[in-house]
Design brief:
The protein is mostly helical and 61 residues long. It has a domain of 42 residues. Helix content is 54%, strand content 0%. It contains three helices and no strands. It is extended, with a radius of gyration of 21 Å.
Amino acid sequence: MINNYKSEISLFLMEYKKVHPNLEKSQRDGRSRLWDKIQNSKSIKYVCAKNISQKSYVYYE
């Protein structure tokens, strides 16, 4: 027996993708600009050296 149930959010996303067919391409483009970068050892060492420890509990006023 195959379950054909689709949740409301699944139906919404399928409809949204039909209305906005370029959505997935723009998501891939955004990801490539922000995340899919080649890391070099110099930038990794810089980030690791700048690691600042946070206090155990942060109070907001």
